[in-house]
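#onboarding

Welcome to the new folks! Below is a worked example of what a typical request in this channel looks like: someone posts a single protein sequence, and someone else replies with the predicted structure as tokens. Don't worry about understanding the tokens yet, we'll cover that in week two.

Example request:
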Amino acid sequence: MDPWREEIGMWHDVLAPQVPLLEKVLRTALVYVVIWALLRVSGKRGLASTNTLDLIVAFLLASAVESAIQTDDDSVTGAVVSAVTLIALNTGLLHLSNTSPTAARIIQGRPTTVIEDGRLDEHNLKRLGIRSRELEHAVRSQNGDDISEVRHGELTPSGQFVLTLKDSEQSATKADVAALAEQLRHLETLLATRR
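Example response:
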């Protein structure tokens, strides 16, 4: 066999997909939707904190779905089609959720209240599988000392705790300090003029 034909054969094996491109796109899209649904069902709690077990699941999940996307296709073209399909789906869904509140609610979900007026919402905590210790840590990391200081706390669809402290518990800002300093200067001026 001449070297020219061997080289053409090698490039054909590398670039020519062994599976029809439409099948490749459909397989990739279907796997994307199934994984999205599984993550959506597993809830926000899974996104709130990643631990070793979560990483094991992520690696095994990637391995488990790889064959569904790849089939017997190990061509570069097949891999590129899968990658482009995943990026296009992700970009499209992000755009849709950024432009439509209804789509955002369906795709990403809604925030869930976990603290209201310094009291834990036990029902939502149980449903999300969150321990009060995790909330206490979130309160401390967001400049609070205790759950009783929180006016409103929620777990966002992305798994972040967002807490709003009661007005009496919030730290003073630079603007607050500047306003107080200005008031003190004004009082000093008034006192000085009365003498």
